[in-house]
Design brief:
The chain is α/β, with parallel strands linked by helices. Helices cover 42% and strands 19% of the residues. Helix 9 runs antiparallel to helix 10 (230-237). It is globular and about 40 Å long.
Amino acid sequence: MHQEAAAAARCPGTPALSIVVPMLNEAANLPALIAHLSIWRARACEVVLVDGGSDDGSVELARAAGLRVIDSARGRALQMNAGAALCGGEILLFLHADTRLPDAADVAVCHALASPARHWGRFDVRIEGRPAMLRVVAAAMNLRSRLSGIATGDQAIFVRRALFEAVGGFPELALMEDIALSARLRRQWRPVCLRQRVRTCGRRWEQRGVWRTIVLMWRLRWAYWRGVPAERLAEAYK
């Protein structure tokens, strides 16, 4: 079922959902992103784009489409924290600009956090691209996340605002902010791991080479757990 044709059913009496999208120079991809975010605005979700200093007209394009855009210091963690601070929903969902939510994702999140014992979670992910190995990479990411309780930003992390604020939001790191937030949240509650899949672009995997990217990401993650500063990791990632 296409999202455009998804039923407009909402969960009555549940907290409002706010979707926070950090962006930086996304003009080329904005038409598709705007179309996607318009679906969730039509379903009464709050949508906030947080710009980190785009100079390609992204802000003007998004605002012309009627989307709310706020300015922030550059850095995904800083941008997502800034967006969260200005959102009104009880549940926050952090969406990368190149990731797309599945049909009725708002209802899925609502049901996932309906129990008082559930406070945060993430979706499974599918990496879109030509190499067949990307399907294996995505399956490994989903399994690892389910076993470890650690989520990546590509999996569209969602969290109750109260818990997000209690743990101090995203650590202001140049890289691995999603891993660091997950670790903070996991110390309080295990995540809900939804089987519905978000779709994320595999462009960076294809550009760098799938195996080369796998090795790079494992090296960076291992270095992070060993205490290497995130700024150094960000330079290596670039």
